[in-house]
Amino acid sequence: MKPFTRIFGKFSLAVAGCTLVLAFFLAAGQAAMGATPIKIGYVGGISGACGGLTHSVIKAMKIAIKEINDAGGVLGRPIQVIYRDSKTKPDEGAKQARDLILSEKVKILVGTCSSSIFMAINPISKQYKIPFFSALSGSHRPTIDFGHPYVFQTNPHTLMEGKALAVYAHKQGWKNIVTMGLDYEWGRMTVQVFVDELKKLDPSVRISKQLWPRFGESNYTSFITAALAEKPDAILTVFFGGHTNSLIKQGKAYGLLKRTTLLTFLSTESFISLGTQIPDGVHGWARAPFYFLKSPAAVSFVKKYRAANKGEYPNDWGILAYDEMYFIAEVIKRAGGTDPDKMRKAATSFTFNSLRGPLRMRAIDQTFNSPVFIGVTKKLDKYPFPVLVNIQVITDTHPSEATVRRLRAAAMK
Q1: Is residue 363 located within the same domain as residue 379?
Q2: 232 and 306, same domain (yes or no)
Q3: Domain CATH number, residue 336
Q4: Does 17 score more than 60 pLDDT?
Q5: Rounded to two decimals, what is the model's pTM?
Q6: By the 8 A CB rule, do 68 and 79 touch?
Q7: What share of the chain has pLDDT > 70, as a percent?
Q8: Helix axes of 185-201 and 115-128: crossing angle, nearest 10 degrees
Q9: CA separation for the pair 139, 144 (Å, rounded)
Q10: Which residues span the domain enclosing 51?
Q11: What is the pLDDT of residue 32?
Q12: 10 Å Cβ neighbour count for 377?
């Protein structure tokens, strides 16, 4: 009986130890839930042009927030996010951001799919000294031209993506290119940077035509025919979401994808929406393709996301939003609270292990060294839609610090 007694005693101690550990985490979670929450204001295009993208953002944010709060919150306080719809309109986005600051007393702002809304909220963040983290908007202007101590960017912006696209196009050897960019901040600037950087790499490249469909355009037939008339080696289109979907659908009637090569923005929601309507061989770039990210953390997130959302796959924006919430939590922790100046110093003081890999925020423009993923579409048996394969991960696309200073000086004139 003595050996049994010893075994039973060890088993009892183990159970008791597990109980204490469980009790500790439960107590931590309960303590966090009873503390004053850290309020974060989300201003996103829940409706309007960005509506097809942001559903994944909110779902991913909620997963991250629950995980953070269940683990005891940040500094013993729970995270609380208050969601507002910008309707993908700059004036509405600015209105909602100001109300979140003044009425809800939020300490941090996140969100903004559209570059124009990012621009509209940026001066409000500066005025009230409220840290503003953008994980979705592509414009570089808020963090570079009009950068200030309280604005942060955790995704690649126009200067970075434009340069990456130029590097990729140069490797493909394309000599005659048509560009087609949405006629607003993101489209205009990405095309401009692409052209400038490509000309540096190969002065002999010909940009035979530049086309500018308006933001919200739904009929691209005249633009497609005008582009094809130039008999280009490739067409670069700076579209997103429904714009990309419409272009590909309408282009079939004109043999767009058979008569030339298309390079366009292909984040996951376009693959999910179009399915097999996207043929093999389209060149596309993405910001966070779930199917390419193979770290244990990324694989775990995709599994959790699908389990919580009836098998749905996360789009790029969901992954970016999940990363952003954990980054903000770590910044608050390192800053010892939500003091904006301490958060600013903390944000650039460490390497963040994101789902996209280790990233670090540069001090001069408070922007991550985010990668750009560029590949070619292919249908695989593993997924019910095509994905990008042969992906090239292009990094080191930050503009030089001298360029940042020059752009800021020009913006002040």
Answers
A1: no
A2: no
A3: 3.40.50.2300
A4: no
A5: 0.89
A6: yes
A7: 92
A8: 100
A9: 9
A10: 37-156+294-370
A11: 53
A12: 21
